[in-house]
Amino acid sequence: MGKVVEATAAKTEPVAHADRDHALLSASSAHRWLNCTPAPYLEAKHPDTTSEAAEEGTAAHELAEHKLRQLLDMPTTRPESEWHVEEMDDYTDQYADHVMAELTRARDTDPAAFLSIEERLDFSHIVPDGFGTGDALILGGDTLTIVDLKYGKGVEVSAVGNPQMRLYALGALATYGMIYDIEKVRMVIFQPRIGNVSVDEITADELTTWAEDVVRPAAEKAIAGEGDLKAGEWCRFCRHAAQCPALAAEMFAHVPTSAEHVPAAPDPDTLTDDQIATIVTHAGELKKWLTKVESYALAQATEGHNYPGLKLVEGRSVRKYTDEADVARTVEAAGEDPYKPREVLGITAMTKHLGKKRFEDLLGDYVHKPEGKPALVPESDKRPALELATPENVFQPIEKGA
Ligand code: SF4
């Protein structure tokens, strides 16, 4: 880990991350309500469920906070969680090192620069009841730096134009803007599991203009549940997604349908290239949306709700032993081996079993990555396009005299 740099400001007692309040217009959902102002109102009707990924993220943030507190010589006790595996230790070390490097960077220009961790940031002057928690804030010279740890690995998060980071910055400006002459805001997303460090900078004036021109009017509508539904990539985690007519219309827009909005499922041979390209581009989100609607409808039906033309039936099930120990005894008594052949653990399970470093030391030479099967993806995908074998690039002209 990096060298210890003394903090000159930080809150004193950690608050359990899972116990923190959530505002209706939260910073983490700002991308959604800034684009679709009725969303928070509609989402409030659905239970706020937690996921394993969210629990893992909370555990990572608690461990990361502990590590920063250690580096800053602040009172702390290592939190305990079943999620705290060696991999999380590595990643939270990387995060703590990155924050300390940002502090050192700030101190290069201003020796009085200081770091505040896990500070509650209140931006309710712009968004009703708006607040959030800044993982790490650094004030030095004319610059405010905010570092946010993202522990997910499913979606790469960009700091560029990120409304959550900007709202946190507005909260920090409200607290420190009177005392310090902050001209520049630097926002850093640190997402260690996919090696993503994304940085964006904005002037304090631009940030304030964005708050007044974009955020305040949207927040006023959102808190009143007003405005038009607008579907887009921000629907991904919306709790109203399964019932939302705007999202359904958006999904059907990519699928050939009959006049009654029933997917027509034509033979792929009859589709145009443009239709096929549109469907393939949206296939992932379409499948996810279909699954969401199916799960929602099943949950409602098991509560007694009736849908026209649908009925609840017993699903298929597979046969099971009533008692595995008895089965093993009986088969052994008959002179047969009842057990599966032993199998070597897969790479993920073995890494978990041995720890990342030991896995690398012991098995690094035994791991190879075979070529992946071709996949058809949108042009915006970061992977380079495959070069297919053609007679032109397979058969090279034979040079004279060769
Ligand atoms: S699913 Fe999308 S369009 Fe519908 S309420 Fe949620 S954010 Fe708005």
Automatic annotation (TrEMBL):
Q: By its UniProt entry, which InterPro entries does this protein fall under?
A: DUF2800, PDDEXK-like_dom_sf
Domain of life of the source: Bacteria
User: Region Disordered: which residues?
Assistant: 370-402
Q: What protein does this entry describe?
A: DUF2800 domain-containing protein
The record lists the organism as: Corynebacterium lujinxingii
